[in-house]
Specification:
Layout lengths: L1 H42 L3 H6 L7 H14 L1
Helix pairs in contact: 1-3
Length: about 70
């Protein structure tokens, strides 16, 4: 009887793992889209426009990563 109980308890585990895997993939995809959109928009600005915002071109990737992380955290 203990074997049947253990098998029943383990049956639900892969479904939960699969659901969490899909949720994690969805979250990462959304985060990547926000990252790429931010990089593209900031890269389109001229050096002068970036300077007006207090930014340097070398900061774009870091800022995009922060924006993506904040978007997912909401």
């Amino acid at each position: 009887m203990a074997v049947a109980t253990q098998n029943t308890a383990l049956k639900g585990a892969p479904a939960v793992s699969l659901a969490s895997l899909f949720e994690a993939a969805k979250t990462r995809f959304i985060q990547y889209r926000v990252y790429r959109q931010t990089v593209n928009e900031l890269s389109d600005l001229s050096n002068r426009e970036l300077a007006d915002l207090g930014l340097h071109r070398s900061m774009i990737r870091r800022l995009a990563q922060q924006a993506a992380e904040e978007h997912v955290a909401r």
